[in-house]
Amino acid sequence: MDKEKENTQKKVVTQDEILQVALKLFAKKGYFNTSLIDITEAVGIKTPAGIYQHFKNKQAIATALYGNILDSLSISIDDIRRRNRKASEQLREIVDLLFKLTDEAPDVMQFLLLVKIDEFLPDEKRLLDSAPFLKIKKIFQNGIRDGELRSLDPLLAYTYFFGVISYTLKMILTGDLAKEADSYQAQAWLVAWNAVVKK
Predict the structure, then answer these.
(1) Domains (range + CATH), the chain
(2) Which residues have C-beta within 8 Å of that of residue 78, sequence separation ≥ 6?
């Protein structure tokens, strides 16, 4: 028992471990209901000193998480845009990615879609103004320019399309829709696509 206590006190945690634990807690309990002590205990250390070696406070943890998630999403969207020329193909792959993340990394999607980032990170860009979503808006602009999508304001096209997608994902994440995300993907895609496709 003493040896176990000693190991807990001497455990060195990495930045990634802290971020993973914080993500789970923020997604489950919310940012304001998660304390540094909660994160400390979940990481498996005795005092917050191990956390302070990497982050100055809880807000710094949340800032790093938000940045990492957006960077990863941005890289994925760049890959999708390189592989596909048409707006329909790019949007289809982005929807595939979001539904896959909802099933395989629900904490990430909860942090993005359900946690109100602006309440605790007021200086960060809104989700709609972040790099990945600016790239998605560009897909709509190109699709409209190329005649593949209806002639709409690109932001309105984005709203029609992703309104369906994000609301479906939110309902899955909250448990209002009981099945896994991929059960709803085809239907959500059809409704979203029909809202913007040029007929």
Answers:
(1) 1-56 (1.10.10), 74-196 (1.10.357.10)
(2) 135
Q: Which two tokens stand for residue 99?
A: 């539904």
Count of positions (residues) in the chain:
199
Q: What is the mean pLDDT of each run of 10 residues along the chain (199 residues)?
A: 48 92 94 95 92 95 96 97 96 97 96 90 89 95 96 94 96 95 96 95
pLDDT digits (tens, 9 = 90+) for 81-103: 999 999 999 999 999 999 999 99
**d(C-alpha 26, C-alpha 111), whole Å:** 7
Half-sphere exposure of 108 (CA within 13 A, CB side): 16
For 39: left if phi > 0, alpha if psi spans -120 to 50, otherwise beta; the answer is alpha
What does the alpha-carbon distance between residue 48 and residue 42 come to, in Å, rounded to a whole number?
11
Residue 126 region by backbone torsions, left for phi larger than 0, else alpha for psi between -120 and 50, else beta: beta
